[in-house]
Write a structure and sequence with these properties.
The structure holds 2 protein chains of 2 kinds.
Chain A lengths: L18 H22 L3 H27 L5 H33 L24 H24 L3 H28 L8 H32 L9 H27 L8
Helix pairs in contact in A: 1-2, 3-6, 3-7, 4-5, 4-7, 5-6, 6-7
Chain B lengths: L1 H8 L8 H6 L4 H30 L10 H37 L7 H23 L24 H29 L12 H32 L13 H35 L6 H14 L15 H13 L1 H15 L8 H24 L1 H7 L3 H31 L5 H27 L14 H30 L43
Helix pairs in contact in B: 3-4, 3-5, 3-16, 4-5, 4-6, 4-7, 4-8, 4-14, 5-6, 6-7, 7-8, 7-9, 8-11, 8-12, 8-14, 9-11, 11-12, 12-14, 12-15, 14-15, 15-16
The chains are: A mainly alpha, B mainly alpha.
The structure holds protoporphyrin IX containing FE and copper (II) ion.
């Protein structure tokens, strides 16, 4: 940050950092390890890569948090850029889910594909009870959307205690959601590799579940940062990003619930 | 302008030591240079593969490659390398990194560290791709990776998995790069440089970045499904259990068609700058140019199934995709005619970049016309999977985009290195390369029309003549490529330096206001663009 004092523009000139390089090495090891696992069955390489990636994330974001708290680098302009960046990242994630929904509707709606049998769910599949745990999970996730908004309002008013409370509640609700999903998976009568229904079901909901876990960790970190007083009413980009991410995860779930758990179980498609 | 630049840049020129500078970089110019370097390395590897292919195809019968799987692996790897590791890194990573900040008057990219991981993930992806070709039997799937050919029945072993993860990693790299570019362009323009005053190259990169952001995740989703189909027993593309191989084609081409524009739109941007510079006139119809590119980007998302006319769509679907595809010719025409109108009445300087720009227009028109031909669903039933398609996409994608790269290289190398390229040799290189690629690809229209299928190592005797000419063209192109590296070498060693504005009055964009070579840090005092006319 040598030039920070003489800087005449509002942008953040970042010092060289080894983490991007290390992170890419980690990703490479993880990819090779993953392939080794899929063909030979040992997960060691994959975990080694994962460890490097996770450590990189930790160290890199630690640097970012230091810069944020330093009070110089994250000007209003830089924060604006970070917000746009987060929105764009979420947009790209939406397009990722787009592919899975395409697979799902392609398999279930006869008009969209010649491969469908015209019966959905396919014969022999006993789908999960819509208005049972899936609906409960919907309520849980919606509530967590409310608690995170509560936390957001609290931080805008500078109330760290309430903010932390809201975040803690959100994290707990997130954990309950994930546990419920795990319970459902464990008790479902069908497995990942059975047919197109089970493939799309587990990939779409599983990928969503992964996002819930990531979002929960993100919010948990915001919780600890709140306790440490990192956030001010004016400056809490990390919180905003986590909250937006969480709402995104929430909305994806609503689509999943309506399309997969509700419409998909109702037996509307039958010839 | 230029003396103001020299005044404040001296004391900001301390570069970090070697490892920090090239492995831990947070400097848009150094990262841009790294991208250009990997693109050249990949171009040599991908090029060698294609020349080996042409060597095999020079005569009917089997010459060198008696392992047909290996032939297919060459075709696959060649395609992937050229698309993902040559053209994209050079045009977006290389020139985008170097010149977007310079042209909008920003001191660097928005997220310099993320910029660096984009680059290193690309390297990781490249190594994974090379591994995929050498481990096991290699992926003989073509760059389109259609199942069932790409599933575990027909490609057991880890090769295709390496290919999938290579694309995953390279895709993550591009998505991060796209986010970085968009935020830089939205958030870091110099005061007074409104969106409607940005140089057209910046417009081009902005639109490209949006295409990357929206298209690549869909490919990632498809790749994930292919990976689980291959390794975890799912049935996404398996009709035996309700899955659908055509789903792959939809998802792939939903990505794939925007991808072809991802490759060509940055070249559009370069060509616009160059034509305006060397006609010494602002671009004709600046706004029309910008919005034509936007329109191409938008419409590019709703035409994907023109790659799939033979899968058995009903008539309505085919009619729709035919019409939608042809609609793209309208904004494309706007661009072509605006370039011509820019030159009209201009005082044209035939420098090497301008030669490349003119050649680009010619090649792109040829490729565009064959594209319109292919867009006719009923005609495409015959053309599909023949060399006619190969000729089409090599005209637009391979040679037009590569010429766009050369164009940008000669336009900006003075700014990047401070050196003058050897003019005579560069002109020779242009002519050799230009003649080479035309001799190489033009005959493929004819062999294609005569029915020669693509991706095949042998062919019946009637196709001999065109194939032989094509292979001779490949040889000429190889000489042209070699010459390029000679030119590069001579430029970097040249004693002849260039000034801040090498091209004179036509070069109005901000990169020409900083000295050459551009100092390590530029625009640390933001230029004031208030009230200035659109850069082009
Ligand atoms: C006027 C605009 C264009 C039209 C109407 C058009 C139309 C088409 C059509 C209909 C096909 C499918 C042919 C077949 O497989 O049977 C095709 C293939 C292709 N086009 Fe274009 N195209 C246009 C511009 C471009 C551009 C600008 C690029 C790249 C820079 C491009 C790259 C490709 C590629 C790579 C393929 C073949 C992909 C493969 O099968 O491996 N096209 N084009
Ligand atoms: Cu297309």
């Amino acid at each position: 940050m040598s030039s920070a004092s003489e800087k005449t523009h509002p942008f953040h000139m970042v010092e060289p950092s080894k983490w991007p390089f290390v992170g890419a090495v980690g990703a490479f090891v993880m990819a090779c390890g993953g392939i080794y696992y899929m063909s030979e069955g040992s997960l060691v390489g994959f975990y080694a890569g994962l460890a490097i990636v996770l450590y990189t994330m930790f160290a890199w974001w630690k640097d970012v948090i230091k810069e944020a708290n330093g009070g110089v680098d994250h000007t209003e302009t830089v924060r604006h850029g970070l917000r746009i960046g987060m929105v764009l990242f979420i947009v790209s994630e939406v397009m990722f889910f787009f592919a899975f929904f395409w697979a799902y509707f392609g398999a279930s709606i006869p008009m969209l594909s010649r491969a469908t049998t015209g019966v959905w769910p396919p014969e022999g599949i006993v789908p999960l009870e819509t208005w049972d745990l899936p609906f409960l999970n919907t309520l849980i996730l919606l509530t967590s959307g409310a608690t995170v908004t509560y936390a957001h309002h609290a931080i805008q008013l500078g109330d760290h205690k309430k903010c932390a409370m809201g975040l803690l509640l959100t994290v707990i609700l997130g954990i309950i959601f994930t546990s419920t999903q795990a319970y459902e998976y464990a008790h479902a009568t069908f497995t990942f590799d059975q047919d197109i229904y089970t493939s799309t079901f587990y990939l779409a909901t599983g990928f969503h579940g992964f996002h819930v876990i990531v979002g929960t960790i993100f919010l948990a970190i915001c919780y600890f940062r709140t306790l440490k007083g990192h956030f001010t009413p004016e400056q809490h980009i990390g919180f905003e990003a986590a909250a937006w991410y969480w709402h995104f995860v929430d909305v994806v779930w609503l689509f999943l619930f309506c399309a997969v758990y509700w419409w998909g179980s109702a037996g509307f498609v039958h010839s | 302008m230029s003396n103001e630049a020299t005044a404040h840049d001296h004391h900001h020129d301390h570069k970090p030591p070697f490892f920090q500078r090239w492995f831990c970089s947070t400097n848009h110019k150094d990262i841009g240079t790294l991208y250009l370097a990997i693109s050249m390395v990949a171009a040599i590897i991908g090029g060698l593969m294609s020349w080996y292919i042409r060597l095999e195809l020079a005569e009917p019968g089997i010459q060198y490659i008696d392992d047909f799987q290996f032939y297919n692996v060459l075709v696959t790897a060649h395609g992937f390398i050229m698309v993902f590791f040559v053209v994209m890194p050079a045009l977006i990573g290389g020139f985008g990194n170097w010149f977007v900040p310079l042209m909008i008057g920003a001191p660097d990219m928005a997220f310099p560290r993320m910029n660096n991981i984009s680059f290193w993930l690309l390297v990781a992806g490249f190594i994974l791709l090379l591994l995929s070709a050498v481990i096991g039997d290699g992926p003989g799937t073509g760059w389109t990776v259609y199942p069932p050919l790409s599933d575990s029945n027909f490609h057991p072993g880890p090769s295709v998995d390496f290919g999938i993860l290579s694309l995953h990693v390279a895709g993550a790299s591009s998505i991060l790069g796209a986010i970085n570019l968009i935020v830089t362009i939205f958030n870091m323009r110099a005061p007074g440089m409104t969106i409607h005053r940005m140089p057209l190259f910046v417009w081009a990169i902005l639109i490209t970045a949006f295409l990357l952001l929206l298209a690549l995740p869909v490919l990632a989703g498809a790749l994930t499904m292919l990976l689980t189909d291959r390794n975890f027993g799912t049935h996404f593309f398996d009709p035996g259990a309700g899955g659908d191989p055509v789903l792959w084609q939809h998802l792939f081409w939903f990505f794939g068609h925007p991808e072809v524009y991802i490759i060509i739109i940055p070249a559009f941007g370069i060509i616009s700058q160059v034509i305006s510079t060397f006609s010494q006139k602002p671009v004709f119809g600046y706004l029309g140019m910008a919005y034509a590119m936007s329109a191409i980007g938008v419409v590019g998302f709703v035409v994907w199934a023109h790659h799939m006319f033979t899968v058995g769509f009903d008539v309505d679907t085919r009619a729709y995709f035919t019409v939608a595809t042809m609609v793209i010719a309208v904004p494309t025409g706007v661009k072509i005619f605006s370039w011509l109108a820019t030159m009209w009445g201009g005082s044209i300087k035939m420098e090497v970049p301008m030669l490349y720009a003119l050649a680009f227009i010619f090649l792109f028109v040829v490729g565009g016309v064959t594209g319109i031909t292919l867009a006719n669903a009923s005609a495409d039933l015959v053309f599909h999977d023949t060399y006619f398609v190969v000729a089409h996409f090599h005209y637009v994608m391979a040679i037009a985009a590569i010429l766009g790269m050369f164009c940008g290289f000669f336009y900006w190398i003075g700014k990047m290195s401070g050196k003058q390229y050897p003019r005579g040799l560069a002109k020779l290189q242009f002519w050799v390369f230009f003649i080479g690629v035309n001799v190489l690809f033009f005959p493929q229209h004819f062999s294609g029309l005569a029915g020669m299928p693509r991706r095949i190592p042998d062919y019946p005797d009637p196709y001999v003549a065109w194939n032989y000419i094509s292979s001779v063209g490949a040889l000429i192109t190889a000489v042209g490529t070699l010459l390029f590296f000679v030119v590069l070498w001579m430029t970097l060693r040249s004693k002849e330096t260039v000034g801040a504005n090498q091209w004179g009055v036509g070069a109005t964009t901000l990169e020409w206001t900083v000295e050459s070579p551009a100092p390590f840090h530029t625009h640390e005092e933001l230029p004031d663009m208030t009230g200035k006319a659109p850069a082009e």
